[in-house]
Amino acid sequence: MNIRLVISNYINQDGKSKVLFDCSENKYRKKIDTRVKVQNFQQIGLRLRENELDDFSFEKKILLKRLFEKAKSAIRKYHDLGWKYIELENFLKEPIYKYSVEHYVSEVFNKSRTIITSKDYLNVVNVFKKYLKKNTITFDFLLDPQNVLKFKFNAQKKNVKQTSINSYLKKMKIIMSQAKKDGIISTRFVFPTYVIEKSSKVAVKPDYNIDEIISSVNQCKNIYQLQSLIIFIFLIANQGMNPSNLIDYQILNKNKSNVIKSLILDNEYNYLFFKKSKKGKSIKYVKINYQILRLLSTLKSLFHITHFKKYSEMLAPFTEKNKIFDFEINENYNFYKNFWNFYQKKLGEISNYTFSSAKPIFYDALEEIEMSRITSQIMFGDLPTETIIQSVEFKKIRENIELSENKVYEKLKLNELIAICNNKISILLEMNIAEYSVNNCNNTVEFIKLMGKYEQLVI
Questions:
Q1: Mean pLDDT: which of 42-56, 104-118, 429-443 is highest?
Q2: Within 13 Å and on the Cβ side, how many CA atoms surround 157?
Q3: Beta strands 271-275; 250-252: pairing state
Q4: DSSP 85-150
Q5: Mean pLDDT score, 335-348
Q6: Is the pLDDT reported for residue 43 higher than 90?
Q7: Cβ(382)–Cβ(225) under 8 Å?
């Protein structure tokens, strides 16, 4: 028995051709659809060889290697078990990932995704296995609507929130849809009617209330609660940055420049910058002025107080005055996840805010300020670099941005909040955080001496 992999002569409307098992022995000849398709491959009808797959994407290489393994396995079973042709054909018709959705997700689906996203989708598979009480789940099993309903029912019995169940279901649908595109399954994954329930809760837009925040400061009974509140204020002040941006923002020093800085930013200041959104390409720049520097310095010192002893490798060195953390989120995802869960819980203990409400709060404050269209677009991070370059009123734009920043900080009463928070730190730690700041250290000796003082604090 000889089994080869060949590309079908037929190209469908999407420019894809099927990969086929070409089986032959004596007068027997049979071509079997592998359910894997290749995109825009020029040499249709070509025989594929295992050591010649350079023209394919990384994901397709994995699928094709699995097909080669299946062909070899089929030949062995055909000879060792004395199979008839029909038994050989039935074996080759089985999906290559029939026995494990988890295998497909880890080997193919996740190869084009980030480490964090990959772990998230693998977790979804594990959640399905848990509530379906299965060590392994197959595509055929999940294509049965009754098993999807069973998953929902079992999860509800364990008091899993409906919002979480909806999220797991939607992510599993993404996995199954991609599997169909990859040719792993031929049947469309369809949810049973009403399996996803819409929330009856009406989303309440967070309102910024200075009195509520001051009340939250006064309620803080430990440094962790206050730390969470200062993080929240820092996210708002930095144009509503996302929590992940606190970890991975970058610095544009005043002695360095780029096109945007040379045109519309203030060359006398350092800037921190970050992506406006995970999927977008827009960059937001925040001037490290007096208020931002005070918040940054306070947070840097507080995290050295709370985290230096156990997680010193996660913190930026004292010589980097404008950075708080120094670690890759993808490589330290568990720490990152636990970190935000802990501080979100602490924030919830003393306020009704969440870290994710920082962005809408900042945008609401910005919308109430009168400014030109181009200034608004820059402040909201909506203006492409190319458009900024084409402008001719760079000086005026720079002045308007600074004026708008000052108006927002004044509206948020940032100076007042910083003073109140620092005063609360003095009460909780019996120490002036501005006087004993990590950013005041000019050499290693001073830093070691300060860490010794931090160790004596009761937190």
A1: 429-443
A2: 9
A3: antiparallel
A4: HHHHHHHHHS-TTTT-HHHHHHHTGGGGS-HHHHHHHHHHHHHHHHHHT-S---HHHHTSHHHHHH
A5: 94
A6: no
A7: no
